[in-house]
Amino acid sequence: MIKGFVFDLDGVITDTARFHYQAWAKIAQDDLGITINPSVNEQLKGVSRMDSLNIILKFGHRENDFTQEQKEVFATKKNDYYVALISHMTPADILPGMKEFLDELRAENYGMSLASASKNAPRILAGLGLTTYFDKIVDPASLRHGKPDPEIFAKGAALLNIKPSEAVGLEDAFAGIQSINGAGEFSVGIGDPKILHEADLNFNCTAEVSLAKIKAAYADQND
Ligand code: G16
Ligand code: MG
Q1: Hey, how many other C-beta atoms are within 10 angstroms of the C-beta on 15?
Q2: Which of 38, 128, 129, 138 has the fewest C-beta atoms under 10 angstroms from its C-beta?
Q3: C-alpha of residue 171 to centroid of ligand 2, in Å
């Protein structure tokens, strides 16, 4: 039986990727002399701050040009700029259908936790007015491995005191679906089914996410 839901944040509840991109594009241009493009941005989704910087440096063939100390300065500068951008977020920035979906889950008393790689997740949930919906938030600083490793989604279920087999994970990134599947949870993909083909169930966009369809697909797989 489904007892709880573990959510990715960026791309599932709200679209922060555009702000990450804006902030990285500025730091890359101003401080690193690298011009990034949307295809680089795709590689940054769900990836930690320092790993994102390393991807950008590699893209610009500058991976050996800076000390760890200098890289920390760039990462902090990016974050300061990013935090300024997300400080304007409001409930209007919740992706279509997700507020209604969260309300439905709350009405049926499901546990809900957040499995985001972002250290800014609590701040973003506050801006969206969704803090009270989430019983637990996985602290990304506590993780040894990022997605696609199962650790983050496994913790998301453990924090709710439920078994992985009782948890549903929601993700928009292929690496996230791999993390959910690796944790032994039921995976729901949101986005292109060709990219998210390993998901147990897929919706093309957040507006299509349906609790009834998730329950039916979960029951099919578990009877
Ligand atoms: C998000 C974004 C990533 C970002 C990461 C860390 O992951 O998709 O692009 O690099 O968080 O964010 P921060 O610098 O705020 O700690 P997710 O897991 O919510 O998709
Ligand atoms: Mg995501």
Answers
A1: 15
A2: 38
A3: 6
> Which of 7, 118, 145, 170 should be mutated for ligand 1, with most atoms under 8 A from CB?
118
Written as one string, the DSSP assignment of 143-183 is -SS-TTSTHHHHHHHHTTT--GGGEEEEESSHHHHHHHHHT
* Chain-centre distance for alpha carbon 202: 16
**Alpha carbon distance 160, 5 (integer Å):** 9
CA 26 to chain centre: 22
Specify the residue for token string 């985001």.
116
Confidence (pTM): 0.93
Q: Which atom of ligand 1 lies nearest, measured to the CA of 75? A: 14
Nearest CA to ligand 1 atom 15: 118
> What value does the mean pLDDT take over residues 63-69?
97
